[in-house]
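In the design runs reported in the main text, the only information available to the sequence generator was the tokenized backbone. The following block is the verbatim input for one such run; it is reproduced so that readers can re-run the procedure and compare outputs position by position.
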């Protein structure tokens, strides 16, 4: 850094730390002449900073608000305070406010020295999270935000509810805050499909140093993916519908609700329809396209219960 550049940054820091400075005071602080101070002021004005000056015995310089927001210089304590405040806003329930806070937080923590990052982590309260979860790591959240912004592939360690840890290679698309939780919407490279992960279940993020071209995803599809992820719960009863329908046609018909479906050869699709009860499984099957042949793989006891339930309905229709 040249002496001129370094002096300009120091001058800017002084202007931001005190409301009014006289030219002799600034010259003394910077170790230069008053004429040099005037030249440095002109350089700052050329960079977009609005600096008001007054003449006379009590004259001097002050940094004023301009038409655009210029860069700001922060002390260590100010940077830590802002980072903590941004984490608190990111944990809030206002979706747009949380998204903006996370965007700024990612920019700040990208350049925050490690010693200050440790101070932020020690002082900041944990991010708000759903009951029963182990909390959202702010480091994970900001790493994912950077990957979304920079369009960089990452490998994440993810533990689904009631499951074992998995490693997934993904192309992050967006982070969505809803009700105190954060959801990562991304393209899963190993499954070649869109997936949604709850961020409090992500334990680490490894940048793969590979950039990717963004994939088109309409905002309403992002909302639908998150809605499906929020409504999914561990299943008390497991069932699978095997349809005589190619996987592509099935996904086209069901959209985000086809999540978890897999191809069974070129002409069939296996779709998990587990739910909290056999009654709910039957309700889910009722949404399958009319006229599509399928069979249901179900435990014997659950099969008997469903048969009795459906027989009761048929009897009621014939009365």
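Verbatim output:
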């Amino acid at each position: 850094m040249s002496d001129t550049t370094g002096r300009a940054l120091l001058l800017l820091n002084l202007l931001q730390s005190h409301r009014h400075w006289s030219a002799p005071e600034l010259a003394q602080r910077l170790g230069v002449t008053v004429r040099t101070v005037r030249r440095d002021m002109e350089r700052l004005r050329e960079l977009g900073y609005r600096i008001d000056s007054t003449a006379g015995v009590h004259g001097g310089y002050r940094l004023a608000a301009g038409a655009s927001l210029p860069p700001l210089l922060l002390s260590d304590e100010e940077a830590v305070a802002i980072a903590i405040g941004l984490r608190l806003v990111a944990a809030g329930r206002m979706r747009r406010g949380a998204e903006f806070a996370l965007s700024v937080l990612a920019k700040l923590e990208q350049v925050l020295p490690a010693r200050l990052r440790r101070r932020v982590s020690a002082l900041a309260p944990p991010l708000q999270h759903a009951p029963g979860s182990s909390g959202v790591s702010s480091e994970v959240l900001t790493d994912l935000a950077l990957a979304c912004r920079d369009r960089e592939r990452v490998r994440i360690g993810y533990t689904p509810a009631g499951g074992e840890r998995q490693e997934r290679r993904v192309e992050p698309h967006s982070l969505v805050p809803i009700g105190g939780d954060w959801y990562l919407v991304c393209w899963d490279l190993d499954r070649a499909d869109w997936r949604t992960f709850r961020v409090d279940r992500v334990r680490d993020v490894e940048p793969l140093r590979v950039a990717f071209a963004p994939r088109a995803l309409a905002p309403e599809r992002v909302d639908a993916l998150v809605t499906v992820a929020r409504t999914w719960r561990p299943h008390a009863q497991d069932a699978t519908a095997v349809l005589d329908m190619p996987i592509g046609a099935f996904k086209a018909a069901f959209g985000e609700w086809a999540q978890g479906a897999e191809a069974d050869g070129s002409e069939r699709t296996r779709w998990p329809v587990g739910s909290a009860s056999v009654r709910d499984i039957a309700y889910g099957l009722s949404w399958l396209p009319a006229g599509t042949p399928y069979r249901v793989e179900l435990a014997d006891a659950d099969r008997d219960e469903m048969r009795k339930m459906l027989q009761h309905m048929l009897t009621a229709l014939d009365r």
